[in-house]
Specification:
The protein is built from three helices and three strands. The mean pLDDT is 86. The protein has helices spanning 41-52, 57-64, 68-89; strands at residues 11-17, 20-25, 31-33.
Length: 116
């Protein structure tokens, strides 16, 4: 078994928790168990893709069988990864910015005289 954090094989047993063997990595000091992860990376990617296609957090959670807080954590983690990749790649455009002209629209809603 490898450490999920540093991929070291230098693990020591540290007891059992909820029926699963716990290990402590001697290299990084992190704890892990021998249980497989509950959700695969493909499921998490599918949840993020659903979020990007305007599906609600609760609906995604119901669909994949996770908690809404867990789905939100996956989305935030993916957001941080995308921001890190964008920061590493540098600015996308180094030319001058285009000038954009916008028109303002004013609306007025008159109160209905019938009192509704």
């Amino acid at each position: 078994m490898d450490c999920p954090n540093c991929q070291s094989q230098d693990l020591r047993k540290t007891g059992r928790k909820d029926g699963a063997q716990r290990y402590c990595c001697r290299s990084c000091g992190r704890y892990c168990t021998d249980r497989p992860r509950r959700f695969s990376p493909q499921t998490k990617a599918q949840a993020v893709d659903m979020y990007l296609n305007n599906v609600g957090i609760r609906k995604i959670a119901r669909f994949v069988g996770a908690s809404p807080a867990g789905v939100l954590r996956w989305i935030r983690k993916e957001h941080e990864a995308v921001q890190a990749r964008l920061a590493k790649s540098g600015p996308a455009c180094v030319t001058e910015a285009d000038i954009i002209e916008m028109d303002e629209i004013y609306t007025f809603v008159q109160k209905n005289s019938s009192g509704r």
